[in-house]
Specification:
By secondary structure, the chain is of the alpha/beta class. 42% of the residues lie in helices and 11% in strands. The chain has 14 helices and 9 strands. The strands form 2 sheets. The chain has a 7-stranded mixed β-sheet with strand order 1-7-6-5-4-2-3, sandwiched between helices. A two-stranded antiparallel ribbon has the order 8-9. The radius of gyration is 21 Å and the shape is globular.
């Protein structure tokens, strides 16, 4: 099979943004806090000031994770924190396949291999425990030094939530191999059905070996206001890691801008305007994600039901004959083809560490909410957003594209 020439399609500069935006107007109360702090010019300490660290501790305590402010660090986005953690821990890195597009580049930037591990059939974000053990064994046999496993219980790109039993088996396997875990929990607060299923953090299962990272662009802040928090384990190991990460952040001068830090502290305290907006935003994206999933599956493609986030990961392998007839043979060509046809970004699975030859893409719900701030606001406020004309048109257009591919694929099927 032909493979796309990577020239001009680099996995970093030409890849998707670190976090899919929600596409919605900034909450007025957040804007007011940011504006009120705009005149503050005094530098805050690297790793976050007292108000932000206290707010982060309260945020995690409300989620069942006891946290002291001196076990927290803040940085200008989760990528900066992951870079510092990877540098501090040393050794080789293990990541699930597929994984968030920004995880592996930070290991490569530091000259560290990032070894992909297959995920179980029922979810993404968490390695299959047996595949993890086999990968660790192979890496060590080849002279490698695996020390860090990055995972996510609420996953980008697949939009799934790991069942507690699967997560528990993976965490046990990682603990048995002496790995440190970084749990990216950026999307945990975008969980679509929190009253129907259970979401656990690895830090609840293995508190002494898990660092939790949360980028606030997942649920609380606009993507253009970079801020993230990290919760370190208690004890001597966590204290040493926390100190080393602060050293690295200091060397990079990786501090949060003071107005953004003020907005972040306000959001993490979870006042009523913030929680009300988050509830409405999650409800909207969940509805659109379900409609997107229905359209993709009805066309014969494969996708796990979305459970969190603002995206869907679709496997168009069953439509390969129709795509091949249109010159699409790999994920990069699928990204280009669907992006042009749908008029929106459709990053291929290779952006997330998946096989280039697999016909997989991540589809964003934000792209369907409208072209203007007024249309997107209307979606947010409507009790029946899927009935709005502009959203209906977007879904009809998307269904038409996928239905055409299904019909073509059926014509290409050999007679039985």
């Amino acid at each position: 099979m032909r493979r796309t020439d990577p020239e001009g399609h680099g996995p970093v500069r030409y890849g998707p943004s670190a976090l899919p935006d929600d596409g919605l107007p900034v909450l007025p109360e957040l804007s007011a806090v940011l504006a009120a702090a705009a005149g503050r010019t005094r530098d805050r300490p690297i790793g976050g000031g007292t108000a932000l660290l206290d707010a982060a501790g309260g945020y995690w305590r409300r989620r069942g994770l006891p946290t002291r402010p001196d076990h927290v660090a803040a940085g200008p986005g989760a990528p900066a924190l992951l870079l510092a953690l990877t540098a501090a821990l040393g050794g080789d890195v293990l990541v699930p396949r597929p994984c968030a597009a920004w995880w592996a580049p930070y290991a490569r930037l530091l000259g560290r291999p990032a070894f992909p591990v297959a995920t179980p059939a029922e979810c993404g974000g968490v390695p299959d425990p047996y595949a993890l053990l086999e990968t660790v064994r192979r890496v060590r046999a080849e002279g490698g030094d695996p020390r860090l496993l990055v995972l996510s219980v609420a996953d980008d790109p697949t939009g799934t939530v790991a069942p507690p039993e699967v997560l528990h088996e993976t965490v046990e396997a990682a603990a048995g191999e002496g790995l440190h875990l970084v749990s990216d929990e950026t999307w945990r607060d975008t969980w679509h059905t929190p009253h129907e299923t259970m979401l656990l953090s690895p830090a609840e299962m293995l508190p002494e070996r898990v660092t939790v990272v949360t980028d606030l662009a997942g649920a609380f802040l606009p993507g253009g206001w970079p801020a993230a928090i990290a919760r370190f384990p208690a004890g001597a190991t966590g204290d040493a890691l926390h100190a080393r990460v602060l050293d690295i952040l200091t060397a990079l001068d990786a501090r949060i801008a003071e107005p953004v830090a003020a907005a972040a502290a306000y959001a993490l305290d979870e006042p009523e305007p913030v929680t009300a907006r988050l509830t409405a935003t999650v409800r909207l994206h969940a509805r659109v994600a379900r409609a997107l999933h229905d359209a993709v599956v009805a066309a014969g493609a494969l996708a796990l039901p979305p459970q969190a986030g603002r995206h869907l990961y679709a496997d168009l392998g069953p439509l390969r004959p129709a795509l091949a007839a249109r010159g699409v043979g790999d994920a990069q060509e699928l990204e280009d083809f669907l992006g042009a046809l749908l008029g929106m970004p459709t990053p291929g699975g290779h952006r997330f560490g998946d096989d280039l030859g697999a016909l997989r893409v991540r589809l964003s719900t934000m792209e369907l909410l409208g072209d203007t701030e007024e249309e997107r606001t209307e979606c947010l406020l409507s009790p029946t957003p899927l009935e709005l004309p502009h959203l209906q048109r977007a879904l009809i257009s998307l269904r038409s594209v996928f239905d055409d591919l299904r019909d073509d694929a059926q014509r290409w099927e050999p007679p039985r």
